[in-house]
Structure formats: C-alpha cells, structure tokens
Amino acid sequence: MDAYGHVNNAVFIRYLEEARINFLFRPDKEFKQGSVVARHEIDYKRQLVHRHHPVDIELWITEIKAASFTIAYEVKDDDLVYVRASTVVVPFDFETQRPRRITAEEREFLQQYTDEADEEAVAA
Fold first, then answer.
1. Cα–Cα distance for residue pair 101/103, rounded to 1 Å
2. For the chain, N or C: smaller number of CB within 10 Å?
C-alpha cells in the first residue's frame, strides 16, 4: 500500500510474478531449464485499495514463438478488472547464459492455455 491507501503499481509486478511462477513451476509441469522476463506491459484500469482478502489473477498464453511466449493476465474481482497485463517470457539456459528454444514438452504444456485451446474445448 502506498501513501494514497491503494496498492502501489510496483506491487502489481509482484502479483504477476507470483501468478507466473505458480503457473510455470507446478509440480506436474515446469520449465526446468529456466526462463527470464523480456518485457512487461501493464494497463492500470482502476485503483485497488488495501484489503484483507485476495484478488483473482487469471492468466493465459497469447503467443508461442520458437524462443519466447507471451502470458496475458487480468487482476480482478468477478467482473471488476484492476489491471490488464502481459509478459514476454524467454526460455533461458543459465549454464550458457543464453536464450534457448522452447522444448516440445513446454510447447505442449503452453498450448493447453491458449485462446485456441479454449475455442477447441467449446467446439467439442
């Protein structure tokens, strides 16, 4: 919370980071070889005042390339959106200190969370 009584803009970056880590590093699927953030884009839609109950963060994959992918987010309560954001993530080899390509397993995992995956599920 900042001097104005609402959640500071920098805190939203931490919220997005927590959601992203929980998504990518789950026990059943994880980016074991590592990844780094290449870009954040955040649109603040309304202020979020300090409170004792959590907000919801929805995330999905909007783009998968050979060596990067984009995660989109909404920080919200029901239909009330506080933030819309996106993060470009680059798979990274920390041993060589270089970006790497997305593995077939990682691509398969990410594709489950694209808009196309939702459209396929609705059509089925």
1. 6
2. C
Q: What is the 3-state secondary structure (H, E, C) of 59-81?
A: EEEEEECCCCEEEEEEEEECCEE
CA separation (Å) from 55 to 16, 20, 60, 80? 12, 15, 17, 10
Strand partners, 44: 83
Q: Which amino acid is at 113?
A: Y
The gap from C-alpha 53 to its chain's centroid, in whole angstroms, comes to 21
pLDDT tens by residue, 36-65: 999 999 999 999 987 788 899 999 999 999
Boundaries of every domain in the chain? 9-123
| pTM: predicted TM-score of the whole model, two decimal places | 0.87
Q: How far apart are the first and last CA of the chain?
A: 45
Q: Classify domain 9-123 by CATH number.
A: 3.10.129.10
**3-state SS track over 19-51:** HHHHHHECCCCECCCCEEEEEEEEEECCCCECC
